[in-house]
Design a protein that fits this description.
With 206 residues, the chain is mainly α. Helix content is 79%, strand content 0%.
């Protein structure tokens, strides 16, 4: 019988899902940031709020970790999972902030495409986290995240290559957009990193 003063480990899984859903909200906000670029200042502010909420959820998970004797899986893996989810949100926020800081006037179709891939990856992350408690039927989601990462690589390479064509933008715009595309690609990679942690956890408990 579980002692009443020991927090129920099931609460961890609820918090993981909440964290994932907050990351997904940030990804959808980034997509909206590019779609409604005239409202970029407002959306960037909302993204900062979402990132702060992610920090709060991570703190709650950390506090629960300190007060729980028996955790649902290795403490190191719990730290890795919340850290990787935080990374995704941090990069998303940095993309928006960089666009505003660099005074980018209009998003490109490639940026839209990269943002769409990030949303799809985050949707798969939430689905994976929803199944994490049972450690079953999770693999289709990390497999899809890996596929999307490969697609993101393709889009990112083409986006950067297009900057250096004869009819590409002026050198200053090249520098700006290379930074933004790289940050978007870093976000896509961070989603895959989170998926890798989930995969490692499931493999350990299969």
């Amino acid at each position: 019988m579980r002692l009443p003063f020991i927090p129920r480990e099931e609460k961890f899984f609820e918090l993981f899902i909440e964290d994932g859903q907050n990351v997904l909200a940030g990804a959808r906000m980034l997509e909206e940031f590019f779609r409604s670029y005239e409202q970029r200042e407002r959306l960037a502010s909302q993204l900062r709020d979402t990132e702060r909420r992610g920090d709060t959820i991570s703190h709650d998970i950390g506090q629960k970790l300190e007060n729980t004797f028996v955790t649902p899986f290795d403490r190191e893996d719990i730290h890795q999972l919340i850290s990787r989810l935080d990374d995704v949100l941090d990069f998303i926020e940095e993309v928006a902030d960089t666009c505003i800081l660099y005074k980018i006037q209009e998003p490109t179709p490639m940026a839209h495409e990269q943002a769409e891939i990030i949303v799809q990856q985050c949707e798969e992350l939430v689905r994976a986290l929803e199944k994490l408690k049972g450690f079953k039927n999770v693999s289709p989601h990390w497999i899809e995240i890996h596929r999307l990462e490969n697609e993101g690589d393709r889009v990112g390479r083409k986006a950067i290559a297009d900057l250096f064509t004869d009819d590409g933008p002026d050198p200053i715009e090249v520098i700006k957009w290379k930074e933004v595309y790289t940050l978007l690609e870093d976000t896509i990679d961070a989603c895959e990193d989170a998926a890798n942690v989930i995969e490692r956890i499931v493999v350990k408990h299969a």
